[in-house]
Amino acid sequence: MTAELVRGQNHTLPQTRLEIRVSAGTPVVAGATLGDEQGTVHGIEWIAHPGSPQLPGLEVSKQAAAEHRLAVDLDALPAAVHRVTVLLALPMGVGGPVRFGAVAAPSVAVTGLEGTEIATFTLTGLDSESAVAALELYRRQGAWKVRAVGQGYAGGLAAMLADQGVSGAQELARSVHEAVARGMARSVAPPPPRTPEGDRVRHAGAASGQQAPATPPAAPIGDPAPAATPLPDPAQPRPAGGAGPAPGPATSGRINYAHPRRQSAAPPPPPPTAPPAEPGRPAQPVAGDATGWSMEERLYNQVWGMFEDLARTTAAYRSAVDFAESRMEQELDRALSDPRNRIGGAGDRAREEARTKRDQLTDRAREALDRDLAQLAAESAVVEPALPAAYAGWDNPVWHAYRVPMEIPMALRIGDLHLPESADLRIPLLVRLPLERGIWVDSGRTASEAAALTGPDQLRRLAMENAVAHAARLLAVYPAGEFSVHVIDPAGSATAALAPLVDSGVLAAPPAAGAGGVASVLAHLTRRVDLVQMAIRAGAADALPPDLDTAEQLLIVNDFPHGFDDRAVTQLRYLADEGPSVGVHLLMVADREDASAYGPVLDPLWRSLLRITPVADDHLADPWVGHAWTYEPPRTPPGSRVLHNVLAQVAAARRSGRS
Fold first, then answer.
1. Residue 84's closest CA among 30, 128, 126?
2. Is the pLDDT at 643 greater than 80, yes or no?
3. Is the pLDDT of residue 398 over 60?
4. Beta-sheet strands, E only, within 455-561
5. Do 99 and 128 contact (CB within 8 A), yes or no?
6. Is 514 exposed, middle or buried (0-12, 13-18, 19+ CB in 10 A)?
7. DSSP per-residue codes, 570-630
8. Peptide bond before 405: cis, by omega within 30 degrees of 0?
9. What DSSP state is assigned to residue 245?
10. Residues 184-212: pLDDT tens digits?
11. 540 C-beta neighbours (distance < 10 Å), count
């Protein structure tokens, strides 16, 4: 039976191999310190954190996430360790919440390796604190216990580490936050809040690289407004209509797409378009089968739900496989610790039995995963053809009926995501519009197999072609005249890749070349940011100069830092920091190694942009369960003229709007 602890309460631990699961409504940093009998931490080598995630008997997550799993083997801890304190902290310097009082109360659960809960603790009553000692595992008279602590620190991670006797706490806290910031720079956004009913209501961030938009229109008077709640613990069963099985044993149920409890959600549910499923059979997926005010929003939310489903069902499979391996090791240790079993065939039989049990558990886990993947693949098969142009791939027939839109869509597709367990199942990667962060297309070598097989010159060419495709999509989904694109190509090396934009006449001006061109474009856009910011602060938007282009602006920078002096770099950082709030966005095409010559001055720029690659690469991480997702860039079908045809319609609509 699970013990629900309150602050200060303790509970005996029945086993020594444990998982500590953290669930929060926003990405948090999870770490742990090892202490002696007095609780003193003897140096940084006794602290596990994202920059140094492994210690003997202890492993923590490598990045900030909304959900964590910390692995603890109490028997493997050094003999001098008598206390393990689990720490949670809000990431600093990344634009997120800065106090726990502004987010839903996080919860922690101590479980066995198979997912069975031993004790849980919800950290309520936090306000100005940005770091908290959540709970501690401590040894008393040879037995291990867990105690709910809940001690918050308004001084943050540094104050918490200093309280445990860590020397150099300030420097260590700074290095931890820097490591987290580097990880978050390559993360997709956290999952959306849930309604009280736990329905698969996907309103905020469908596999997105952006934060959630403003809330939808309010519910009618008398209806309860949906409240943001913490993400459910992945060890708990998903409610009806949830997004997949819970991580843990491989006996999880199949995914339910029927969503029977939507009636109290604020947005209206979609009308039934498919007959109910027969008893014992999964419901047939339907495009737009998610809560939303319009079909576009329903599809957007459904894409997020598919991302969520795939993350959870894969986490369940990996957890079950890890449990099977751990159980086999335990059984072998017990069997072979007896000297009698090392003589004759007893040891061989023990090994064979342990491996057989491991294989059986793994096979059951794979069966559950395959069943859930089949259901997700069926949903993808009906969702993909129904996507609007902004969400659709270039090979979708919807582009053949393209017309310049009258309104800005909710989001834009910038590629696909998949996991190694399901390489054929691709989830669209959507970013919210208007853009809230720029994009960095990395033209350098990465650790991926695709990059290793691609030459440097080809990588740079593919990166620029990728940037042109993204710019074309942005132009295509905005109403005529409401989006402008500028290009900086200092050495003129991207002439061939830029041909679709140049030939169609959709650029605001010819690509800028040389140091003079770089300075001119940056000065123009910096002036626009300054004027719009002043007008907003003064409440005088009608006082803007008549020559100011009020459309959203995109600046494509190729081959950075070639052609950039210190002043130009400073202006570029200014545009990255201040531009998105007033409609100026960056699309960088550069090699991170080439840009490293500027040192730490560019680190904030690098972290503020969403990094993508021109070839498949598993560099994107979700802040939910920490999966490394493989990103696939968008591709136009070989020999297709779809990109040119779309840009031609955009150019024609602009000309007719000016005439």
1. 30
2. yes
3. yes
4. 483-488, 552-560
5. yes
6. middle
7. HHHHHHHHHSGGGTEEEEEEE-HHHHGGGGGGGHHHHHHSEEE-SS-EEEEE-TTT--EEE
8. no
9. P
10. 655 665 544 444 333 333 333 333 333 33
11. 10
DSSP letter for each residue of 294-356: SHHHHHHHHHHHHHHHHHHHHHHHHHHHHHHHHHHHHHHHHHHTSGGGGSTTHHHHHHHHHHH
Looking at residue 53, its pLDDT comes to 85
pLDDT mean over 123-141: 91
Write the burial class of residue 520 (CB in 10 Å: 0-12 exposed, 13-18 middle, 19+ buried).
middle
Q: Within 10 A of 474 (CB to CB), how many other CB atoms are there?
A: 21
Q: Are 316 and 369 in contact (CB under 8 A)?
A: yes
Tell me: pLDDT of 638 over 70: yes
d(CA 408, CA 479): 7
- What is the distance between the alpha carbons of residues 594 and 590, in angstroms, rounded to a whole number? 8
Question: Is the CB of residue 144 less than 8 Å from the CB of residue 173?
Answer: no
Q: What is the pLDDT of residues 15-55, one digit of tens each?
A: 988 989 998 878 889 999 999 888 888 888 899 988 888 88
Could you say which DSSP state residue 4 is in?
E
Q: Residue 193: what residue type?
A: P
Q: What's the token pair of residue 212?
A: 């959630």
- pLDDT tens digits for 512-548? 999 899 999 999 999 999 999 998 888 887 788 888 8
74's tokens: 């109490």
Query: 107 has which bridge partners?
Result: 23, 122
- Orientation angle between helical segments 514-538 and 566-578, nearest 10 degrees: 40
Q: Which of 452, 488, 442, 401 is nearest to 589 (CA)?
A: 442
> What pLDDT sits at residue 261?
36
